[in-house]
User: What shape does this take?
Amino acid sequence: MIDISDGLASELFHIAKSSECGITVYEDKIPIDVHTGMVAEEFDLPIMVPALNGGEDYELLFTLGLDDYERIKEDEEISIIGHISDKSEGINLINKAGQSIKLKAQGWDSFNQEKK
Assistant: This one.
């Protein structure tokens, strides 16, 4: 479990690296705050850019096994945004058109204190 205050994409990479796995997330499953949409509009960015790479979101990101998934899948307070895959697949976003896009970690790394 990790908070996404350094950016969702960055934290997906941390989980994938420490767990030696790949990750697939789905654009239409990622909850996006209204303020994120306002930032995207103000800077003329696709909304997924700040949604994936913006920071200061104090939400938790975690993985769980399929047995636990069955127990929480109907919980309205938990957003299931993707799944774990083989390490060789890397970290991908499936966009609303069904295309797979390789993600880059562009968030803030508070351990290295530099932008990725």
